[in-house]
Amino acid sequence: MSSLHHRHLAVSPDWLALYYKRPLEITHGEGRHVWDVDGRRYLDFFGGILTTMTAHALPEVTKAVGEQAGRIIHSSTLYLNRPMVELAERVASLSGIPDARVFFTTSGTEANDTALLLATTYRGSNQVLAMRNSYHGRSFSAVGITGNNAWSPTSLSPLQTLYVHGGVRTRGPYEHLGDTEFIKACVADLEDLLGHTRAPAALIAEPIQGVGGFTSPPDGLYAAFRRVLDRHGVLWISDEVQTGWGRTGEHFWGWQAHGENGPPDILTFAKGIGNGMSIGGVVARAEVMNCLDANSISTFGGSPVTMAAGLANLSYLLEHDLQGNARRVGGLLIERLRAIGAGSPCVREVRGRGLMIGIELVRPGTDEANPEAAAAVLEAAREGGLLIGKGGGHNTSVLRIAPPLSLTIPEAEEGAEILAEALRSVD
Fold first, then answer.
1. Which among 119, 286, 340, 341 is least surrounded, fewest beta carbons within 10 Å?
2. pLDDT beyond 90 at 249
């Protein structure tokens, strides 16, 4: 055990998880690579849990942070803040929500917490619909709507949560149905649920479930849900903490795969926009955002330094068409991984979009989750020089692959080959 690991254990909660048998200390990064304390280089296919969205040490972002820090680091929302207004204008325009208002937070958890506050206040209801297998953060209210047992340490909650079918396409009672029939069955379940309960405030859903193992419904499910929700006056919250900013390649926001009946009422974001700086936020139409009848501020949300980072990072992403790169390079990577998975008895499914890819592992010859294999592949990939993540819910074990959106084709090929060797080591 390293000295730093020993010190970590002495002062950190037991539930603060670390990857690897020998936990890794990362000292610096550049592009799509990071280095550990021993000077070893790794290709990063997880990006600090989908947070280093463009590249490590992106010069445009580090320059913006340094210049802003040299002027003023902090002021709070009690004063006018030019970088915050400029970023809010850009996010509002990109959101697709009409007459949008933007409130910045420091994390995705806090963004979802704010969205729940808005929805429950606007609707006068503490009842919330959430998706099975979902994850929305670690605050008391966010845990209360999390449909993933591994990340839900308490059943206590300020909300009454009801869970809806549909977030997991290839498991559960409707997995045998075709996409059209799957959507019909999930809509019928939603209709039936609403017939047995008081009017909920909102449905909150990740277009692609992150912690749950990068699983998603067929395109159009949430558009079909929207027709039902609108009839009942129920708001739709799209949790874009992991799917936003073009990561899926096909769309800038995950909700756009379900946009037939318009944008969500509330959209939450975080992670990638700051490229490692602590930024989260909520976008909502003005009527919803302005429903609070008490004062509120954010001490750290909208910090001048983080806003400067977000502006520089968003500009880089748009000017270099990183969404298009995610579509092109991600498409090649997922096909390569599917070919590798076809030859592994441990791989049940390779799924995802753009640079948001999941590899579900099972015990050979069964449909049973294989957490031991997932842990072993994580270790073997590290030994090969590749960092990946893992997750899953609904009794699954999934390798999570989400590199920075500037990933090159040679880097994608290199990572795929390391993963192939890691999978072979556990077959």
1. 286
2. yes
